[in-house]
């Protein structure tokens, strides 16, 4: 029983020591954390103060530069105004001088011309005016009327029979006899009346062949040359 009591007392003492050491450790940690937070807050405050001081300095510098610029601008404006005033004054002086000169010239021109005799009498000389008359001689304008002679050109048309072309067409017909011609027979004659019955064409051998491809019986042909003022124009051919 004594041993148990001793062990129990030792355990109490040990637990008390553990509790005390734990409390000491917690207190120490809390103190260090508070110090660290206080130091960090102090540093942040110092940094903020430094930033505020720098921003204030920058603002002051900017305001100083703006004031300097405004001063320079005002100086330039005053210089320009002074230059304008000097120019205006010089122009006014020139105008006054020119006005004086013109008035003096007018007074000298309007002063009468006087001749003094021995008796100190002034005689005014009369002004002589010369009148020049310009006469313009009017010359009569002669309009010449030209008569235009109109010449009428008469167009003389005429046709002449072309027998050579007719013989060429007959030769082509005889050389190209179709089946109807062989079966029913054919004959070729020259007839000028067919110009009112069919249309004309320009001669080619193929056109003659096409015109007689289905013909038989009496085949009429005619050819003539067209002239204008005795000049040849073209040849007209007819087949019916």
Short description:
By secondary structure, the protein is α+β, with helices and mostly antiparallel strands. Helix content is 56%, strand content 15%. Strands 3, 4, 5 and 6 form a 4-stranded mixed sheet that branches. The protein has a two-stranded antiparallel sheet with strand order 1-2.
Low-confidence stretches: 110-123
Described by the principal axes of the CA atoms, the overall outline is elongated
- How large is the radius of gyration? 70 Å
Annotation, overall tally of beta strands: 6
Q: Which structural class should the secondary elements be placed in?
A: alpha+beta
Give a short account of the largest sheet.
4 strands, mixed
What fraction of the residues are assigned to beta strands by DSSP?
15-25%
- Report mean pLDDT, rounded to a whole number: 76
Distance between the first and last residues' Cα: 169 Å
DSSP summary: helix tally = 4
Helix-strand string: HEEEHHEHEE
- Helicity, as a percent range: 55-70%
Q: What do you see in this structure?
A:
The chain is an alpha+beta fold. The protein has 4 helices and 6 strands. It has helices at residues 2-110, 163-175, 179-184, 205-211, and strands at residues 114-116, 122-124, 157-161, 186-190, 217-228, 231-239. The strands form 2 sheets. Strands 3, 4, 5 and 6 form a 4-stranded mixed sheet that branches. A hairpin with a 5-residue loop joins strand 1 (114-116) and strand 2 (122-124). The radius of gyration is 70 Å and the shape is elongated. It starts with a helix and ends with a strand.
